[in-house]
Amino acid sequence: MKRNIDPLAYSAQIAQALKQGAFLTTKSGDKVNSMVIGWGHVGIVWGRPVFIAYVRTSRYTRELLDENPAFTVNVPTQGFSKEAFAICGSQSGRDLNKIQAAGLHLEPPEVINVPGIREYPLTLECQVIYRQEQDPALIPENIRQQYYVRETADHVCYYGEIKAAYIIDRE
Ligand SMILES: Cc1cc2nc3c(=O)[nH]c(=O)nc-3n(C[C@H](O)[C@H](O)[C@H](O)COP(=O)(O)O)c2cc1C
Q1: CA 102, 105, 108 angle in degrees (round to 5)?
Q2: Whose CA is nearest to atom 30 of ligand 1?
Q3: Is 10 helix (H, G, I), strand (E, B) or coil?
Q4: The CATH number of the domain where 128 resides is what?
Q5: What's this model's pTM, rounded to 2 decimal places?
Q6: What is the pLDDT of residues 77-105, one digit of tens each?
Q7: 20, 36, 47, 78: which has the highest count of C-beta atoms within 10 A?
Q8: Quick check: 165 and 2 in contact, CB under 8 A?
Q9: Structural domain span for residue 103
Q10: What domain count does the chain have?
């Protein structure tokens, strides 16, 4: 069962959860892949509820997003498995099926064509309506040194219009 929610009413909870990490899932063809995200926010753009995610150009997730511009965000509400977190936050979906390796289960979506993750019940289904690659020249030097020297790939901001938001009830 799924209980619909107003994503804006949950923005503080989502922001708090992102301090540890949430899961962003993408799908292209029969490939489904999840990565851990720490950056992102819920808000309103062009009069629509959106989740904006920041994905480095080097991620497999970025390739899948370009092939199918939709994603789900799953927010752990009652903790998360350290193993799932380690796998989805450091391994690439290019090399393995992370969902399987992490022992996670997919939840069929309501509106978009990308599933969510049953174990992390607060779900946002997002359709990308805009994307923008950050311009390194506009990033303050100290931040650029901190984030784009060791790992050089820039971030792309994906604006996902929230098409459905709910909490999965596993009972
Ligand atoms: C706590 C945490 C937060 C992260 N946040 C982001 C993020 O916001 N954007 C990003 O591009 N990568 C982020 N990462 C790194 C990706 O999760 C990691 O590189 C992942 O292996 C990419 O998977 P993929 O190649 O299958 O897309 C984060 C990792 C951790 C552990």
Answers
A1: 145
A2: 89
A3: helix
A4: 2.30.110.10
A5: 0.97
A6: 988 889 999 999 999 999 999 999 999 99
A7: 36
A8: no
A9: 2-168
A10: 1
